[in-house]
Amino acid sequence: MKTLSYSILWVVGLLNANAAFAAAECKSYPKEEWAAEDTLKEAMQAEGYTIKKFKIDGNCYEIYGRNKEGKKVEIYFDMKTLAIVKAIGLKD
C-alpha cells in the first residue's frame, strides 16, 4: 500500500513540474490571418537572436534559440500580431 501511495505522489509531482513548463495560451486565428513565419524569423535575427528551432505550438509560433547575449531562450508569439505571449530564459 505504501508503494502505491509513493507512486501516486511521484506522478502528481511530475504533473505539477510539467505544468510549470506548459505552453503559452495564444488566441486562435484562421490560417489566412497568420503573419508569415519569415517575417518573424527576419525580425528576430535583426534583433540579434539565433534561431535553432522554429515551430508551431498550438496557436503560437515558438522559437528556441539564443538572444544577443548568447543565452538560451524559448519564446512564444501570437500568430497574427507577432506579439510575445511568453518568454522563458533557459539554463545553458
Automatic annotation (TrEMBL):
<dbReference type="Pfam" id="PF13670">
    <property type="entry name" value="PepSY_2"/>
</dbReference>
<protein>
    <submittedName>
        <fullName>PepSY domain-containing protein</fullName>
    </submittedName>
</protein>
<feature type="domain" description="PepSY">
    <location>
        <begin position="9"/>
        <end position="87"/>
    </location>
</feature>
<keyword id="KW-0732">Signal</keyword>
<dbReference type="InterPro" id="IPR025711">
    <property type="entry name" value="PepSY"/>
</dbReference>
<feature type="signal peptide">
    <location>
        <begin position="1"/>
        <end position="22"/>
    </location>
</feature>
